[in-house]
């Protein structure tokens, strides 16, 4: 009898947790977050993202000046966006890169604690070796004392893109 009671409790608890999880996810039409990054120099940024980080060019799109103003994205400026991903798959996050051809208005951070807002992006890698080779080849500065070991297997590397955005790379040597 006690076993049946325990089974019933576990069954309804599992059902409740499943329903709760479904309730939380029903509000989103996609399970990804897409990030838009405004850069000073589009060519330099794309070189970093593609040739150092290893992203792939996926697609692109434009937003006309009228929509830019009506949507509140810009003050009547058109937008040309290059969409990058870590891999060409439907489930991969989108890194949307765009430039308005002007310098940023705030100084580049030296540390993530220097400013508020989104400060860094974490990318988990299968092997740190090709990343460290590309970082060296493209003269990208390693920050802090990185690479450093997080545990017996995983390394941590910190770099910045040409606009000062921080990237953490985490993975085995």
For the report, how would you describe the main beta sheet? 4 strands, mixed
**Which descriptor suits the 3D outline?**
globular
Under CATH at level 1, the class of the largest domain stands as Alpha Beta
**Radius of gyration of CA atoms, rounded to a whole number:** 22 Å
State the end-to-end CA separation. Answer: 54 Å
The portion of residues assigned to helices is 25-40%
Separate helix tally: 4
CATH-scheme architecture of the largest domain? Roll
The total domain count is 2
What is the string of helix and strand elements? HEHEHEEEHEEE
What quaternary form is this?
Answer: single chain
| Number of extended strands | 8
- Which stretches are low in confidence, meaning pLDDT under 50 for 5 or more residues running? none
CATH topology of the largest domain: 2,3-Dihydroxybiphenyl 1,2-Dioxygenase, domain 1
The strand order across the widest sheet is: 1-4-3-2
Structural class: alpha/beta
Strand percentage, roughly? 25-35%
**Annotated CATH homologous superfamily of the largest domain:** 2,3-Dihydroxybiphenyl 1,2-Dioxygenase, domain 1
Mean pLDDT: 89
Description of the structure:
The chain is of the alpha/beta class. It folds into two domains: 18-103, 2,3-Dihydroxybiphenyl 1,2-Dioxygenase, domain 1, CATH 3.10.180; 106-173, 2,3-Dihydroxybiphenyl 1,2-Dioxygenase, domain 1 (Roll). It is built from four helices and eight strands; from the N terminus they run αβαβαβββαβββ. The strands form two sheets. The chain has a four-stranded mixed β-sheet. A hairpin with a 4-residue loop joins strand 6 (148-149) and strand 7. It starts with a helix and ends with a strand.
């Amino acid at each position: 009898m006690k076993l049946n009671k325990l089974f019933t409790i576990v069954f309804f608890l599992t059902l409740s947790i499943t329903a709760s999880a479904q309730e939380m996810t029903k509000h989103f039409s996609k399970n990804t977050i897409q990030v838009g990054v405004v850069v000073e120099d589009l060519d330099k940024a794309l070189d970093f993202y593609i040739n150092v980080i290893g992203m792939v060019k996926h697609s692109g799109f434009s937003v006309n000046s009228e929509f830019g103003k009506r949507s509140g994205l810009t003050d009547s400026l058109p937008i040309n966006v290059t969409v990058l991903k870590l891999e060409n798959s439907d489930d991969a996050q989108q890194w949307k890169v765009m430039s308005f051809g002007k310098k940023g208005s705030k100084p580049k951070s030296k540390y993530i604690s220097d400013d508020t807002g989104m400060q860094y992006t974490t990318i988990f890698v299968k092997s740190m070796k090709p990343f460290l080779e590309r970082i060296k080849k493209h003269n990208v500065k390693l920050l802090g004392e990185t690479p450093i070991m997080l545990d017996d297997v995983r390394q941590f590397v910190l770099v910045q893109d040409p606009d000062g955005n921080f990237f953490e790379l985490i993975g085995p040597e």
